[in-house]
Design goal:
By secondary structure, the chain is an alpha/beta fold. The chain contains 12 helices and 11 strands. The strands form 3 sheets. A 6-stranded mixed β-sheet has the order 3-5-4-6-7-9.
Length: 296
């Protein structure tokens, strides 16, 4: 007898379940065979490509908040109070795992404060955002926690800055970010600013899978360094001004993701992105060198 929630299941039901399960398995198997969709048909290199979309921080659901008043997430040595804080949107969240592992190596911890499409500012959020009120409340909570912390000495600010109206004074974004940074600095916090990463025109794992189907995957998937430099010249100039005016440490991921001529999204069997513009865990792991000064 099969038990389920205290009731008996008849033989007819058992047969029905088995029949449906068998048919489903055969249909899926046939579809996989006809479309050549089974990852097992490909080399380990291609299987890594297929898995890249899931190569994300395992704590993302827990620590990329969508509620306004969470407890901050602690990465690294769980027995020590945090000395570094990471604050920003989903583009900041991709660095949490790496910073946690780097902190763990030196017996330290990192406090992580991330919220989707919610910049590390005070009293400024996108007008069209359905969770705008939650973002504003989250910002206030995070700012207060960072100011009141007696152990956090360094604050890492990261976001998709190009996606916010930094050039339009009327929106108030630029003044809000600057006043936030100024207040943190005045409170004795050393603030670091993480610059944008290269972005691709398509979902990187999907594009690589498409190329794999056609047998066209090369050693690397990239855009020219000239294209990246041209697309970021204005936001870089804005961030350079902030860094200069407030004596901020500049953290520039493109220094590790780009060569003098190319910016890479896939290289030597490693997929750097989980979509068009969010780094995968493997991609973030390429940035140890640019983040290392935080731990010195």
């Amino acid at each position: 007898m099969i038990r389920g929630q205290g009731s008996k299941v008849s033989r007819r039901q058992i047969f029905a379940f088995s029949f449906v399960g068998t048919v489903t398995f055969l249909v899926i198997g046939l579809h996989g065979d006809l479309t050549k969709g089974w990852p097992g048909r490909y080399s380990k290199e291609y299987q890594r490509i297929f898995a890249a979309a899931r190569d994300k921080d395992p704590r993302q659901r827990e620590c990329l908040f969508v509620r306004p008043n969470p407890q901050s997430c602690l990465y690294g040595d769980q027995a020590t109070a945090p000395t570094i804080a990471l604050w920003g949107d989903s583009h900041a969240a991709v660095y949490a795992d790496l910073l946690g592992r780097m902190a763990q190596q030196s017996g330290r911890s990192v406090s992580v404060h991330t919220f989707p499409s919610c910049p590390p500012t005070r009293k400024w959020a996108l007008q069209s955002q359905s969770w705008r009120d939650g973002c504003l409340e989250f910002q206030a909570t995070t700012f207060r926690e960072l100011l009141e912390s007696k152990t956090i000495r360094k604050v890492v600010i990261a976001a998709a800055f190009a996606g916010y109206p930094f050039e339009t004074a009327e929106t108030g974004f630029a003044s809000s970010l600057e006043s936030t940074i100024a207040a943190l600095s005045k409170a004795g916090k050393s603030v670091s600013l993480v610059y944008p990463v290269p972005t691709f025109s398509k979902d990187v794992p999907s594009e690589l899978a498409r190329l794999a189907e056609q047998g066209r995957v090369q050693e690397a998937l990239s855009i020219s360094r000239r294209t990246f430099d041209a697309s970021t010249v204005r936001v870089f100039a804005y961030l350079d001004g902030l860094a200069r005016n407030h004596n901020l440490r500049k953290i520039q991921p493109h220094q590790s993701l780009c060569s003098a001529t190319e910016c890479y999204f896939f290289r030597n069997g490693t997929v750097y992105y989980s979509d068009t513009d969010h780094l995968s865990l493997a991609g973030a792991n390429q940035l140890r060198t640019v983040f290392q000064p935080l731990f010195e």
